[in-house]
Known about the structure:
By secondary structure, chain B is an alpha/beta fold.
Amino acid sequence: MGFIYEGLLKAFELLFNGNPETWSAVYITLCVSSLSIFFTILLGAPLGFVLGYCRFKGRETLRMITDTLLSFPTVVIGLLVYSLVSRQGPLGDYGLLFTLPGIAIGQVMLGMPIVVAMVANAVENSDSGMKDTLLTLGADNIQVLKATLWETRYHLMLAGVAAYGRIVSEIGISMMVGGNIKWHTRTITTAIALETGKGEFAMGIALGVVLLIIAFGVNFSVAKLKRRAGQ
Amino acid sequence: MSLYQLSNIVQTYGGRPVLTIDSLELTAGSITGIFGPNGSGKSTLMRMLAFLEAPQQGTIHFNGNATSITETSLRREVTLLTQQPYLLKRSVKENIEYGLHVRGLKSTSGIAADALEEVGLSAEKFLSRQWFELSGGEAQRVALAARLAVNPSVLLMDEPTSSLDEESTERIRNAALRAKNERRTSLIIVSHDREWLTSVSDSTVLIRNGKIESTQCG
Amino acid sequence: MKKFAALLLALALLVPAMAQAKDKVLMMATTTSTDNTGLLDELMPEFTKDSGIDIRWTAIGTGKALAMGRNCDVDVLLVHAPGAEKKFVKNGHGVDRTQLMYNDFVIVGPAADPAQVKGMPVEKALKAIAKAKAPFASRGDNSGTNKKEISLWKAAGMAVPDKADWYMQLGQGMLKTLNAAAQKGAYTMTDRGTWIKYMDVNKGKTPLKIVVEGDKVLFNQYSAIAINPAVCPNAKVELANEFIAWMASPKAQKAIGDFRLLGKQLFTPNAGK
């Protein structure tokens, strides 16, 4: 018990005295996860919307593929991205291995299916009364499309937050593609995994606390958004 | 004068006929009540009258002209209040002004407030509320206010009183009568409450098993 | 909308900052033992100060480090598996292999020493452990330490244990393996540097004790290898050579010798010897 207490005490010391190693991991995590979630939503939301709104051939198959990708393990994505961005890989010339944009590629792959599936579901299952209401109030097709986009904004945010939660807490991609390089690609999760291995429990606990706070914030927003989205 | 003229209508869902109407004429400037048991095809009829779905066979003439559901202009004359109305995820004011907005009309400040007062909700209290701050009955009345605000020539209401108390039911009746008398709106109302429906309607139509059984003038 | 614009601006600033192409960045793959002990944290800031080279390292097992070298993903290696290293160089993947320092391996085990191996030579000790089916924790990650351990089982004339109940292949770094051995009451083999670090972290309180040490076969040589630019055109061979030269310089060699944990020397410099 003593060492947990000691660890906690030291953890708060690290956080409040601005320990540069600890805060570097926090800063890097926020940088890379922001980058990832930005592109995840940028690419995923329109795709999800099209998938949920339009009726075209192969749509069901695409939906099925997206749903399957939801359970893509991060280490497999990590391996995949590693083999893509390794110097021997097809994207090797860009020098993305051991960089945050490299990690972001993997995290976008992780987050995309979540956003696509959730947005597609939201649009597809959006209250069937919604379209009727828009039409009967006199909207033309373009106006219906615009209003549908706006009506699903909370679902979109919900999808974004859910994807962010997954991205910020993943470790497989950050470790394999980022390499856990101190000051550069050491994120909260890789630091916890490896620093704990090195016996630096206090730093592990400090970072764990930060991660918990982020997770709490994410869950809190999910709960709030769900109410707004009317689920 | 003939408002709607329906001829040889057949509507099927998944191969099963739900509504068959050889001929039905509804007159302008009056309130028509439609009643009948659950699943008799009332809501399907209302959706067709609102130009939200097209019949598989047959024609609907509106004001003497053939119609198609692709014409937005028709839906700017006819509006439907569904049984469980959907409110846009916006403020009450924006909900009421949406119909004006899509018509490219500038909403004068009074319209939304007047429409709210019309359905018996205080504008001061409700205008700035968000959609999630309303009870079921309040949402129903805001939805009605949104339809009144566009000043339709035809107002269709599907079971407008099913979730309301007696006082609110009376208010809907008054709103309907005022719309007919003061704005010359034609109204078509579906209700299972035959007594209430007769009290408000000029004529009634009975539908059973997807067929018109009788029409009578009040 | 304003918020969105601010977000875009922030990202616009962030992306180039991250993608910044620094010419003088040297990427190294190294073993967990050099990183976990804190040696690199001590030495590398000095190197950066002297050379202006921004060195970044990823700490993985020697096997994986060699694989990263083969894939041209790094510029230089700091590893400890002489046999595999020589093969790596012979196959044309690396150049300028340079010996830098050594420490030695020790076999540690529970204080009660259930297989009674204390003070035995390595071969006898391993045979005794296998015979007693006393728990043994192996790195199991193809690292330099793991390769060494495997070679010792072979040298003792035994098949390398695999699916035995008493033989645990962890696939983890050295410190994690030591922690696991302590929890499970198992023997394990470790480099002395990590062992001292482990004692430091646990403030000397551990159920593990050194049971076998000082045997010549337990010698653990660390070397640096530059990745061959003829095979990997991206490899920054000049920077790599600058790094290797610096590590072999009297200044760095002295720093290696002076690096201490709990007052104990972890590595013995031996560049040019």
